[in-house]
Structures are given as structure tokens and as C-alpha cells.
């Protein structure tokens, strides 16, 4: 498949004509690539938390207790092996 037919296939998949696609790409290149303000990210994060999309964070203390418990279980398993 040559480049022109590949480009034409891409245009057909997007629903835009080749000319419309070129105009859109040219105008998009003129826009600055700046991230949204911090307030926008905070609002998105609040909404995601409200919808339950973020898993609750495991505290450092909980990680230490889990590690110590696992180590103790391994020691007990080794000591109980005949």
C-alpha cells in the first residue's frame, strides 16, 4: 500500500475529506501546546475520586505491617519444616 492510499484510508476512517483534514491539521499546528491550569486538574481529580476511579492509597505504615507479617510467616514456615 503506497502513502497516498494509506493517507486516503486514514481520511475515510475519520469521516473528513483529505482537504478538511489538511485544514484541520494546519489550524491545530498553530495552537499552543499548554497544559490546563491547576484548578482544572484538581476539579478532574475530585470528580474521579467522587466516581470511585481512584483506588484508596495504602499508607506507608500499612506497607510495613504487611511486610513484617509476610516475613514472620516465612520464618514460621521455615521453622516448622521437619
Provide a descriptive summary of the structure in words.
- This protein is mainly α and 82 residues long.
- The chain has a domain at 1-31.
- Helix content is 71%, strand content 0%.
- It is built from 4 helices and no strands.
- The chain has helices at 3-14, 18-29, 38-50, 60-80.
Topology:
Layout (H helix, E strand, L loop, with lengths): L2 H12 L3 H12 L8 H13 L9 H21 L2
SSE topology string: HHHH
Radius of gyration: 27 Å
Largest sheet: none
Poorly predicted tracts of residues: none
- Gross geometry: elongated
End-to-end Cα distance: 68 Å
DSSP strand count: 0
Give the amount of beta strand, in percent: under 5%
Secondary structure category: mainly alpha
- Helix tally? 4
Helix content range of the residues, please?
over 70%
Mean pLDDT comes to 83
Looking at this protein, list some descriptive labels:
mainly alpha; 82 residues; 4 helices
Concise summary:
This protein has 82 residues and is an all-alpha fold.
